[in-house]
């Protein structure tokens, strides 16, 4: 650990956030920021969101280490230079095809597993286990995992690090259905970009096809995103998305923003935001220097 080791560890890659940069400033995004029950719209520097100080640092057997450098070297840089991401940065999401299915799924999975939300969830569930609040809901395998986490102070972070650095192709990759969608309206994202929007036995707002499936969404740029669907037939499609479906996805990010453990910023720059805030129960207070409260 050198003196030059960065303390600001981004759990949302800056190359991803740049896909949503303000038209007049490539280093800033328009955000919805949460302060308790107050929300404010503003412009924020990309390097000032989606990070936690020293998040990737650890001490093992008395030796300090960090996965900050390896994440950049092994995962971020290769994906940001990949043919899949090149299509996205070229504004050519319509050219995404079957060869991009596994990279998109892998990137969505990585963004979820390396996220601060995941680390805080592991810690919160471990605390619940120690308090006896999970006893009736655990399988034997889950119980063993929680017992291992509880055995040492660093084990929750060690589990998080293993997930963040995992580069293996998941066993279920061949069974995944990736549905790339071209949106006619601007799409939102957040500092927890891989959004779980449906779980089995939850009524699907997006149509009967999604009933009883586990479904995630990842926005890829302002007008393109992808559903990642598990539990149904495998496949890949790339097609236009109706505006009303895009609005439902955007509203799901607003729901996430209000209910998550860690998501302070939603990236949003669209004409429907004021109406969706009213839908969510918020009312206008005042204009600010760069937005509204």
UniProtKB/TrEMBL annotation:
InterPro entries recorded: DUF4238
List the Pfam families hit by this protein, alphabetically: DUF4238 (PF14022)
Q: Which domain of life is it from?
A: Bacteria
Protein name, as recorded: DUF4238 domain-containing protein
Tell me which species this is from: Sphingobium fluviale
């Amino acid at each position: 650990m050198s003196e030059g080791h960065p303390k600001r560890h981004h759990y949302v890659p800056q190359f991803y956030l740049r896909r949503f940069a303000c038209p007049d400033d490539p280093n800033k995004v328009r955000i919805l920021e949460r302060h308790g029950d107050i929300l404010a719209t503003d412009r924020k520097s990309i390097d000032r969101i989606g990070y936690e100080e020293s998040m990737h640092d650890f001490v093992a057997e008395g030796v300090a280490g960090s996965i900050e450098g390896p994440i950049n070297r092994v995962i971020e840089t290769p994906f940001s230079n990949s043919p899949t991401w090149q299509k996205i940065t070229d504004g050519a999401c319509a050219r995404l095809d079957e060869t991009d299915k596994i990279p998109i799924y892998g990137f969505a999975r990585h963004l979820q597993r390396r996220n601060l939300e995941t680390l805080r969830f592991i810690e919160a569930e471990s605390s619940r286990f120690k308090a006896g609040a999970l006893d009736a809901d655990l399988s034997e395998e889950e119980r063993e995992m929680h017992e291992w986490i509880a055995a040492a102070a660093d084990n929750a972070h060690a589990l998080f690090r293993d997930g963040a650095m995992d580069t293996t192709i998941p066993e279920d990759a061949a069974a995944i259905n990736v549905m790339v969608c071209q949106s006619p309206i601007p799409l939102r994202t957040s500092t927890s970009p891989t959004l779980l929007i449906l779980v089995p036995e939850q009524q699907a707002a997006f149509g009967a096809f999604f009933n009883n499936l586990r479904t995630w969404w990842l926005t890829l740029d302002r007008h393109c995103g992808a559903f990642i669907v598990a539990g149904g037939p495998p496949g890949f499609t790339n097609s236009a998305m109706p505006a009303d479906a895009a609005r439902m996805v955007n509203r799901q990010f607003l729901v996430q923003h209000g209910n998550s453990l860690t998501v302070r910023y939603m990236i949003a720059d669209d004409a429907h935001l004021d109406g969706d805030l009213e839908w969510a129960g918020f009312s206008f207070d005042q204009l600010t220097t760069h937005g509204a409260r």
